[in-house]
């Protein structure tokens, strides 16, 4: 939010030097986010193919599609100026984040149950 607020304030104040610097910073962060999208694609794809799944296969495939769409949406919207690309990027990033949350919560529950089972076995 800091960069969005600063960019908006710089634009309103017509401060092109500050606007340009913060816009480049925000764009750099978003370019890095593209690689996070690819990481989610790999993780969700592996989860879809795994025998011991944390999330259902259909949900993992949704995570793969959302990650790919977010990866493609950013350059379409920001680099090539296609407005639909920005919409795809925002929507698919939201879906990708929801899948990541679901996967993380499931993984945390799995790890807790495994360590609890280990603790109870070692105390007997």
Whole-angstrom Rg: 20 Å
What form results from the Cα inertia axes?
elongated
Mean pLDDT: 86
- Count of alpha/pi helices: 4
Terminal Cα span: 52 Å
Largest sheet: none
- Regions with pLDDT < 50 over 5+ consecutive residues? none
Hey, roughly how much beta strand do the residues contain? Answer: under 5%
SSE sequence, one letter per element? HHHH
Give the class from helix and strand content and strand pairing. Answer: mainly alpha
- Percentage of helical residues? over 70%
Total number of beta strands: 0
Helices and strands in order:
Blueprint: H1 2-12, H2 16-49, H3 57-79, H4 83-123
Helix pairs in contact: 1-2, 2-3, 3-4
Note down, in words, how this protein is organized.
Helices cover 88% and strands 0% of the residues. It has four helices and no strands. Helix 1 (2-12) packs antiparallel against helix 2 and helix 3 (57-79) runs antiparallel to helix 4. It starts with a helix and ends with a helix. The model has no long low-confidence stretch (mean pLDDT 86).
State the gist of this model.
88% of the residues lie in helices and 0% in strands.
Task: Tag the structure with descriptive keywords.
124 residues; mainly alpha; 88% helix
